[in-house]
Predict the structure.
Amino acid sequence: MARDASRGVRPPTELTLTERARRSQLIAATIDLVAERGYAGASLAGIAQNAGITKAAVLYHFPSKAHLVRAAYEHVIDALVQEVAGAVESVEVGDGPAAYIRSMISHLHEHPHHTRMIIEAMTHDEGDGDSAERWRPLADIIAAAHPVRAADEGNAKNTAIIIGGAINAIVAERLQDPDYDTAAAAEQLVRMVERSTR
């Protein structure tokens, strides 16, 4: 079978149903192991054991730990983006920033393993290193919601970066303190943003 030389794996369109299921199983095992033990503690042998298969079977699907961690990172990012995009698209344009904040914090609260996976992947350069990829979607939502205030692209960018930092802090606090009320923090952040954009 042809292999994608840039990634070292066969393109997903060529995978059988069984291969897709196995890859999904390996991605789930990787997310759990990286979340529990960190990047350094998640070896291919450990991932294989967590998935109940051999290391050779892991290597059949992913040529290296880096490829597997990247696939796991992309999986959790895709899930996050789909949920946040759905929340933003379901409200009026002016309510987009609030929907973004609420859905982002809610998703990361409900999926702490995904949160840890994102942190570990980005810390070890397996995540997306382009900072604009992180702030630009929110900047676009802010600009659409407040076109007059966001006429200067720098204003929307700065606001998006500040909101992103606040979301990161809320999520990080939840990882340290399981009793931290992220929903209340999200509502407070929404109120702060709404006051600043009036």
Q: What stands out?
A: Residues 48 and 58 are 6 Å apart (CA to CA). Confidence is low (pLDDT under 50) at residues 1-7. The first helix runs from residue 17 to 41. DSSP finds nine helices and no strands in the chain.
